[in-house]
Amino acid sequence: MVRRAEPLTPSYVPRFKSRLHDERVAAWLGIWLGVAFTSAFVTGLISHFMQQPPGWLMWPSRPVNLYRVTQGLHVIGGLATIPLLLAKMWTVYPRLFQWPPVRSVGHAVERALIFVLVGAALFQVVTGLLNISYWYAFPFFFTSAHYWTAYILVGALVIHVVNKWPKVHRTVMKHPEDGLNRRGFLLGVAAASGTVAVTMVGEAFSPLAKVALLAPRRPGVGPQGVPVNRSAYAAGVSLAAANDPAWRLQVTGRVQRELSFSLEELQALPSHSARLPIACVEGWSAGATWQGIRLRDLLHMAGVAEDARVRLISMEVRGIFRTSWVSSRHWHDPLTLLALSVNGETLDLDHGFPCRLIAPNRPGVHQTKWVRQVIVV
Ligand code: HEM
Ligand SMILES: Nc1nc2c(c(=O)[nH]1)N[C@H]1C(S)=C(S)[C@@H](COP(=O)(O)O)O[C@H]1N2
Ligand SMILES: [Mo]
Predict the structure, then answer these.
(1) What is the CATH number of domain 223-376?
(2) What is the pLDDT of residues 41-60, one digit of tens each?
């Protein structure tokens, strides 16, 4: 093949001799990152649409662990992507000094999009990492910024993949043999990524909880063996208020008869148990055995339409988690409980005493604690 002569490069443009800055390493890292970002996008959208379902969409309540798996994959997979992203940036950074910087309008656009791609990728992992570390250092609302940047990232990624596909095809698909130091570098990056994954995955997969050194929450660690996300103190719910003899659980709204129960009356109702996880949007999850009243039993006692939606209200006065919606699919599920106890003990105040929702395949933010009112709509 005849190559055009490279244009003369000015002397201030540095030269990079390492073979690790080559196309082949960049292509392999690119493939891995493409898979990782696609998985983050899909699982991220699942999380978004579980929390804000459009009118036509009703999530199934089974399998019970679905959200636990998708959100665990999102957060733990996302963190394992960081070493890949850093390695990729290091491999290709000599291109910043490429001469001439642009060859055509098309090339200029292509390069500009790479800056968008890198910026969006860094933004996603940095905001995600800060969010799960409870370090709200950014002045914007995490969820919206992270959500919209996902589309920018994926848009730029698709264009980038289309542009680079011939190169990937040439360097990766057609050359099965490889140099040792390239392979060693890629193995090292994969090992770094694997280490992050292994030291995180125990936050969702309890057999590995002991090695979850990087995880902010761990199954088994917390009152009654279940981690607590926001304590009663932080939510402004006092033991005195929860223990108040005047406390009632109310079932109101579009019902045939309004109901009101004291704690003793609730305890006297038929009780059921369910083995279900709390699966936090932050990626950690923990299974527990819950005991309490089926929400559907309460709603049938009150007399409601089969397709009614239900809104739960917490004793918590402020805070975005003080209410949540329960779809008809979810309240019909026999595993959906207003739990009074967990792992054989009366709920700890931090787990929502006197009464909290626990339902299958539902983000933790919607497992409302300290429920005091069930409103049928
Ligand atoms: C270190 C990497 C990452 C971490 C730790 C992380 C963390 C999180 C967390 C904690 C949430 C839940 C937000 C909430 O509902 O309150 C979330 C949602 C989401 N993430 Fe990520 N993320 C990471 C990377 C990514 C990447 C690379 C993408 C895009 C390809 C992405 C796209 C999304 C989307 C679309 C949502 C849904 C936002 C919503 O509910 O509106 N994330 N992420
Ligand atoms: N009223 C109320 N309910 C709440 C919360 C809250 O802050 N207030 N936190 C939610 C979140 S984010 C999670 S992950 C689960 C955690 O439940 P746990 O603290 O019992 O593990 O409760 C949910 N229910
Ligand atoms: Mo959560």
Answers:
(1) 3.90.420.10
(2) 999 999 999 999 998 999 99
